[in-house]
Amino acid sequence: MDSFAPNNTPFPPLIAAKDGSNFTYTSLHDRVPHILTDVINDFYTAIQNRTDSDEAVIEGKQLTSALSQLKHEMVTDKPLTPLEEDGIGDTAKWNSWLAKYFPQSTWYTAPFLAWEPYLYRRIAMIFRRSQYWNTYDFFVSKKESTFRASMVAVAKLCARVDKLTRECIEDPNTTKLHLAFVEMLQASLWGNQTDLSMFPDLSNERLEEMQAQISSGENNSKIVANDTDKIWGIMSQISKGRIDIVLDNSGFELLQDVLLAHWLVSVGIAQQIVFHPKRIPWYVSDVTNQDFYWLINALQDPQSVGASGLSPSDEAVLKSLGNQWSSLLASKVWVLKDELFWTGPYGYRYLPSEGNDTWMELVDADCVIFKGDLNYRKLIYDLQWPVSTPFIDAIGPIATDPNAPAIVSLRTAKCDTIVGVDPQRAKELFALRKDWMYSGEYGVIQLSPGRWN
């Protein structure tokens, strides 16, 4: 795969089928226009509520027109046009990438992993070039309201993990730590089901049902490739090390990731956790710095975010953990680093070349955990891989670099590309349901051991 390039891949990329038969087409024709319509409608409401400045209202209407124009370009299959300078810091890289690899591409002829990130980068550009709305997070109300509505379930989960962590500290035998790690890792995996870019109309009832399934372990039989024990083999060798987590969704998934980080520090595996959020609003519910601090504040003071239905004991657990996590951030045991590479155009096999500063940061870690579907797709690329392709082969240079950390992917499958699955298991899954690769109901826990090999 030495000849691998974004427009010259070893297997065909996922492109919208002309007959409308694949998930890429469904996403481009239905799912993503729905998301963009929601952005426009929510922003219209924000404009109506803006009473401090007539100029902001006028500009808001102009931005609404720009968003509508973007949607028109998408649904009418216009070319992917260059970005305009917006001060984010990666415009030149995006435009160079477009010109080099996809100069003639339209929305329906570009690969899925080209047009979809480009869409969200275009949305960010529209807002960042404005005077009155340049810090506006067009997804924030949806992210926060979903989490707020599930605070009772959040409190139950926090109490469970708090108890589990205390037991591990009091009696840190290998078997107990191993079992606890399995539970924490799988909870972090299934937290990825609560993805607002995949389920934009996710109801509170469905969210609570998904949370119950996550906490009970009911979904664990749906892990179609599972390297958990191999990962534990590495984690059990780490003492006061550094673990990085490349985050995906805010809200309930972020909570699961933070609880995993809490456990790793509490039991002494990690001395430092480095979280990697997005610098700009991304894919509806991806974590920004603001989202991370909002979650900590929501636990420290549930009433301040409008939480209801909590018992005094629920609030006590939330406040205790929220205060602990605030202290971990203040003491730099937990660190946030929002590198621009995560919202750039390149897949992660290009980290050592196109994202070298970020890669040099990651190789300082003992293990890097990549969360979610988009991070998985950027690790392996959206290709029609043979399902049996080893994960290590698919991620390429970041697996074979002699300085590479252990790389772990926790992903619930929401796109029809996957590797590392036994062919017989895949055959059984296709017989069971044709959409298993993108239904969000199946997951993988995969490992590249890197220098731990």
UniProtKB/TrEMBL annotation:
SUPFAM superfamilies: AF1104-like (SSF111321). GO terms for molecular function: metal ion binding; phosphatase activity. Gene3D superfamilies: 1.20.930.60, Uncharacterised protein PF01937, DUF89, domain 3. The keyword Manganese applies. GO terms for biological process: DNA damage response. It is an enzyme of class 3 (hydrolase). Residues 29-423 form the Damage-control phosphatase ARMT1-like metal-binding domain. One of its GO terms (cellular component) is nucleus. The keyword Magnesium does not apply. Its cofactor is Mn(2+); Ni(2+). Its EC number is 3.1.3.-. Belongs to the damage-control phosphatase family. Sugar phosphate phosphatase III subfamily. Subfamily III proteins have a conserved RTxK motif about 40-50 residues from the C-terminus; the threonine may be replaced by serine or cysteine. Metal-dependent phosphatase that shows phosphatase activity against several substrates, including fructose-1-phosphate and fructose-6-phosphate. Its preference for fructose-1-phosphate, a strong glycating agent that causes DNA damage rather than a canonical yeast metabolite, suggests a damage-control function in hexose phosphate metabolism. This is Sugar phosphate phosphatase. The lineage of its organism: Eukaryota, Fungi, Fungi incertae sedis, Zoopagomycota, Kickxellomycotina.
